[in-house]
Write a structure and sequence with these properties.
single chain; about 90 residues; mainly alpha
Length: about 90
């Protein structure tokens, strides 16, 4: 074999090694991203559960206050949406 063929084989082997390394790094990054997404989903789910319990407790303890706040938020949203259509 001549040196040109040897150089081509070495270059191909290096390229394959780099490709494999890049693939492994991409798979590891994907795995870390999946884990982070699962943790974020779990935290959001816990937060929603806590908010639901809090709101139910407030509704039982202060129904008029909760109804008043809900009405106020509804009016505020209505005013804001109505003013954006002008």
């Amino acid at each position: 074999m001549n040196s040109r063929q040897n150089g081509g084989k070495r270059a191909r082997a290096m390229a394959e090694g780099l490709t494999e390394d890049a693939r492994e790094r991409a798979e590891e990054a994907l795995h870390r991203a999946e884990e982070a997404l699962e943790a974020a989903y779990g935290a959001a789910e816990d937060g929603i559960d806590e908010a639901s319990v809090y709101l139910k407790r407030q509704w039982r303890e202060r129904p008029l206050a909760v109804a008043g706040v809900t009405l106020g938020v509804g009016i505020l949203v209505g005013v804001l949406l109505g003013s954006s259509r002008r």
